[in-house]
Design goal:
By secondary structure, this protein is of the alpha/beta class. Helix content is 49%, strand content 15%. The protein contains seven helices and five strands; from the N terminus they run E-H-E-H-H-E-H-E-H-E-H-H. Strands 2-1-3-4-5 form a five-stranded parallel β-sheet, with helices on both faces. Strand 4, helix 5 and strand 5 form a beta-alpha-beta unit.
Length: 194
C-alpha cells in the first residue's frame, strides 16, 4: 500500500512539506509507503498540465491521498487549486472512493477555510475523508517552528496512523468479500425555472 502526498506550496521544502513528511513517517511505522510530490512550485512555473498528467498517470500506484497547502490570503494556494481543478477533471474516476485527507499550514489564521476548500474536492468525488484528533493543521513560519507546534505534530502523526488503519481495513474488507460501492451517473439539477 502507498499514499500520495501532494505539496501545494511554492516552497518545496517549507512547512507544508515538513508536515507531510511527519504524515509519511507515521505511515511508514504502520507499514504503509508514501511519496511526496511537490506541485506548487511547478504550477507557479507554468508546468500545471505536465505535473497533472504525471500525477494522473501514476494514480494507480496509490491507495490513498493527502493534499497539503499553506494558507495564502486565508485560503489554499492558487497553485493547488489550479492543480486540483485539472487533476479532478482528468482523473476523477481514478480518484473516486480513494481515502483522502487535507492538511493546512499557516503562520496564524485561515486554516479552517483552507481545509474547507480542499475537502470539497474529495467530498464531491465520494472519497472517504480521513480525520485526525483535531483539524489537520500545523502552525509556524519555518519547519523548525512547526516542530515546536507539538499539537500540530501530534495531529500529523495521528493522521498518518488513521490513514494506514483505514487503508488496511479496506484491504482486509476486500479480502473478505466487502465490495466497493459502484459509482452512479451524476444527476444535475438546474434551479432556474423556465
Amino acid at each position: 500500500m502507498k499514499v500520495l502526498l501532494i505539496n501545494g506550496s511554492r516552497r518545496d521544502n517549507g512547512c507544508t512539506h515538513f508536515a507531510l513528511s511527519i504524515v509519511a513517517e507515521a505511515l511508514e511505522k504502520e507499514g504503509v509507503g508514501s511519496e511526496i510530490i511537490d506541485v506548487g512550485n511547478r504550477v507557479l512555473k507554468g508546468e500545471v498540465r505536465q505535473v497533472v498528467k504525471e500525477v494522473a498517470d501514476r494514480l494507480d500506484e496509490f491507495q490513498g491521498i493527502v493534499v497539503g497547502s499553506p494558507v495564502y490570503y486565508a485560503s489554499p494556494t492558487g497553485e493547488i487549486i489550479s492543480f486540483l481543478d485539472q487533476l479532478f477533471g482528468a482523473a476523477e474516476a481514478k480518484l473516486r472512493f480513494m481515502p483522502a485527507a487535507t492538511i493546512a499550514s499557516a503562520r496564524r489564521g485561515g486554516t479552517t477555510a483552507t481545509l474547507d476548500v480542499l475537502n470539497k474536492y474529495f467530498l464531491y468525488n465520494q472519497m472517504p475523508l480521513i480525520a485526525s484528533r483535531y483539524w489537520n493543521m500545523v502552525h509556524g513560519n519555518t519547519p523548525d517552528e512547526v516542530k515546536q507546534d507539538l499539537e500540530g505534530v501530534q495531529i500529523m502523526q495521528t493522521l498518518g496512523r488513521n490513514m494506514a488503519w483505514i487503508l488496511q481495513s479496506i484491504e482486509s474488507g476486500k479480502k473478505n468479500g466487502v465490495k466497493q460501492p459502484e459509482a452512479e451517473d451524476k444527476i444535475f439539477v438546474n434551479f432556474i425555472n423556465n
